[in-house]
Design a protein that fits this description.
The structure holds two protein chains of two kinds.
Chain A lengths: L12 H13 L3 H20 L3 H10 L3 H13 L3 H11 L3 H12 L6 H9 L3 H10 L8 H26 L5 H22 L3 H16 L8 H19 L6
Helix pairs in contact in A: 1-9, 2-3, 2-4, 2-9, 2-10, 3-9, 4-5, 6-8, 7-9, 11-12
Chain B lengths: L6 H26 L8 H23 L10 H17 L4 H19 L4
Classes of the chains: A mainly alpha, B mainly alpha.
Chain lengths: 247, 117
């Protein structure tokens, strides 16, 4: 396809226009649900006494709410930093298949490593789902700019949500402050159910939930580690070797 | 007081304990994406661990909650999330509907119990 002439080779405004279109597409129902969950995260930050700017920075850099909740929750619970790094790392595994499956749609006609890394940074569950919905309608040469615009739009909205949640939670009356703090667990629970397709997924959800209270307060703040690795490994072997269960 | 209760200390923790361990997977996805088979046993195991970990995070948020949620009884916290999941499944798998159902149950319960943290 190298012989294909670039339609507007000397129009520098084109990538910017794709970027702007992507950014506008961030304002959508999934985008607003995302903002609501980050408002909940802001409330959590306030509750745990985590500094607000560092919390907003985590939305920009980590850009994966489960990892962020594990990080600030673990710090508040007194987990050791290496154990937290391991738990954060394990929670991010689901990003790899998302990047692998969405990258062909984000890559554009001339793949460049740096542009792919920037695109990949914005991959999280919302951009992944929205990417599959929106990117096929975008012209091939505009896709990297569009994806980054969409990612920047979602990130900017979520950083705003984080700040709003942080300052709102102290000002809200009781039942509403409670509602704010429920946003994180309810959105994660729905996310788990939505993504569960095979028996191994349901087993992992059940075992992770069941093991979590058993290992609460385990030394070194390793409770998430045990529930995740233990529950996940059990689920994997049960689904794989139990007779009659062929997913 | 620990050093991450200051903005600078917390930012360093966010970068080294949050950003880098998490970003590894995105970089690996770009570098080796075409060579990794998502269906391999190794990836299935890793995926199961990630799912169990997220479920454990939800369980911990509900069982050992922070702040204002402590004032609510466990059955209300669990019941709200349970009805949210039911709402999601019944109402055309809409995330927004599920979240709204859970919030409605929680706020109604908190109001009925007269919770004022």
């Amino acid at each position: 396809m190298n012989a294909l002439p670039d339609s507007h080779p000397d129009d520098p405004a084109r990538p910017a226009r794709w970027f702007a279109r992507g950014m506008r597409a961030a304002v959508s129902t999934p985008g607003l649900v995302l903002v609501a969950t980050f408002i909940g995260f802001g409330g959590l930050l306030h509750d745990l006494g985590f500094p607000v700017l560092a919390g907003i920075l985590s939305t920009l850099l980590v850009w994966a709410l489960p990892a962020q909740v594990i990080l600030v929750g673990g710090l508040a619970a007194g987990a050791s930093l290496p154990a937290l790094a391991v738990a954060v790392c394990l929670s991010g595994v689901r990003l790899l298949p998302m990047v692998v499956s969405l990258m062909p749609l984000m890559r554009g006609p001339r793949p460049r490593l740096l542009s792919e890394l920037v695109c990949a940074h914005f991959v999280a569950v919302t951009l992944w789902a929205e990417g599959f919905r929106l990117l096929p309608k975008v012209a091939l040469e505009g896709r990297p700019s569009y994806a980054v615009g969409l990612g920047c739009g979602l990130t900017a909205l979520s950083m705003t949500g984080t700040a709003i949640g942080f300052y709102l939670t102290g000002a809200l009356p009781g039942p509403l402050a409670v509602a704010l703090l429920l946003l994180t667990p309810i959105s994660f629970a729905i996310l788990l159910v939505r993504n569960a397709r095979q028996p191994v997924d349901w087993l992992a959800i059940g075992l992770g939930t069941a093991i979590s209270p058993l290992v609460a307060n385990s030394p070194g703040g390793l409770d998430l580690f045990w529930a995740g690795v233990g529950g996940g490994t059990l689920a994997f072997f049960i689904a794989r070797y139990l007779p009659g269960r062929r997913a | 007081m620990s050093f991450y209760s200051t903005e600078l200390g917390a930012m360093l923790v966010v970068i080294f304990i949050g950003f880098l361990p998490n970003e590894v997977w995105r970089v690996l996805g770009v570098l080796f994406g075409r060579r990794i088979d998502p269906g391999s046993a190794w990836m299935q195991w890793v995926q199961a661990v990630a799912t169990a970990l997220l479920a454990a995070v939800v369980a911990r948020l509900l069982l050992v909650p922070s702040g204002a949620l402590v004032a609510l009884p466990l059955w209300l916290r669990v019941g709200a999330v349970g009805s949210g999941i039911a709402g999601f499944l019944i109402l055309r798998r809409s995330v927004l509907a599920g979240v709204l159902v859970a919030e409605a149950v929680l706020v109604a319960g908190a109001w009925w119990l007269g919770v004022s943290p």
